[in-house]
Amino acid sequence: MTDQRGRLQIQPADGQLVLSGAIDETSALLELLGRAQNRRLVLDLAGVTFINSLGVRDWIRMQGEATRAGVAIELRRVSEPIIHQLNMIIATRGTARVTSFFAPYACDACGREESLLVDAVANAAGLAQLVPPQMPCPECGAPMAFNDFPERYFSFLAPS
Ligand SMILES: [Zn+2]
Predict the structure, then answer these.
(1) In angstroms, what is the span from residue 85 Cα to ligand 1's centroid?
(2) Distance (Å, rounded) from C-alpha 150 to C-alpha 108?
(3) CA-CA 20 to 30 A from 2: which of 82, 131, 150, 152?
């Protein structure tokens, strides 16, 4: 039962909604709150490639309404474009909890660059100290280096 809203696809799976494509003013994000179960809404954002300024506006409305309605939003596998928004515009964070997210890594040994999934719960202590978790290169196995500034990229995790 895929729900197509403009350039955004919404696919229910295992108690969560898997979002993919681009978020804009046609995405009707506020309506997603109606799909919360037991006041809990889990969004998988791995496939979200882009969000425009009107999408950001609706995203902030969704967060505000969730907080007012007592709906806990969990964001899983958050893609890099969404992390950049969470970092730039504090209001986009709302009261949602990010449990995992993608982060840029690069391998000094073989030159591979990759967006890797970081478990924000298992690595919470290190991330609070702005220490990126160690990741092996999928190509050559060497330890990869975090490819952004931790104090910038992890700022969305700071308590607001
Ligand atoms: Zn490598």
Answers:
(1) 29
(2) 18
(3) 82
